[in-house]
Amino acid sequence: MDKFYYRLSYYKKGKLTYIGFLDLAKFIIRSLRRTGLPVAYSQGFNPQPLVSFSLPIPVGVESKREWIDIALTENVEEKLIIEKWNKELPDDLKFISCRFMKVPKTLDINFIKYELTFFHVDILGLKRDIENFEISDKFYILVRRGDKIKYLDMKGLVQKIELKDSDNIIEALVKVNNGNILRGEEILEIFTVKPIIKRHVRELITDEI
């Protein structure tokens, strides 16, 4: 049976920010089944929709753009896929782009853009810490990955960081390098006095945009 592959992006915000990734994935797949689209399924005793998600999104994190790949058994117009799928989704989660792929290919996330809104603190102190980080050659922090703890050099990952003091927002562009992913809250390690985050937003950036 022929398969037709599509890559879509979506946003997640509001109440859905507090749903775990596995539950979110199940919710999205169930909504896909309700669309009436000709979804392609895996083979075997327990066939599943051919759906592949990008990096898991942590609980409490909003996203301006996440990615998902799907396979259909018929060639369907991209606009129609978005229209049908969005009808089955709440306002806090909607698809914003869809692209047909002649052949399936690995979804490579190149960068993650973070927007961290914080409660008011010593703005001048934060600016000094950012300046010190920018002129440093290395900046190692300890991070936990599963049951392991390892050192991560933030200088090799953080491409840009700036403070928008008028809005109390820290913006950072982080490179995804050989599976090394710097989480939004870990960016706060550069600060002497860590600000308390009240809103955590990310955007996954690929060659698609």
Structure report:
The protein is α+β, with helices and mostly antiparallel strands. It folds into two domains: 4-101, Alpha-Beta Plaits (2-Layer Sandwich); 111-205, Alpha-Beta Plaits. It is built from three helices and ten strands; from the N terminus they run E-H-E-E-H-E-E-H-E-E-E-E-E. The protein has helices at residues 21-34, 78-86, 123-135, and strands at residues 4-12, 51-53, 62-72, 93-101, 111-118, 140-145, 148-153, 158-164, 169-175, 197-205. The radius of gyration is 19 Å and the shape is elongated.
Task: Give structural attributes.
single chain, 209 residues, alpha+beta, Alpha-Beta Plaits, 2 domains, two-stranded antiparallel sheet, 3 helices
Q: Summarize this, please?
A:
The chain is of the alpha+beta class. It has helices spanning 21-34, 78-86, 123-135, and strands spanning 4-12, 51-53, 62-72, 93-101, 111-118, 140-145, 148-153, 158-164, 169-175, 197-205. The protein has two domains: 4-101, Alpha-Beta Plaits, CATH 3.30.70; 111-205, Alpha-Beta Plaits, CATH 3.30.70.
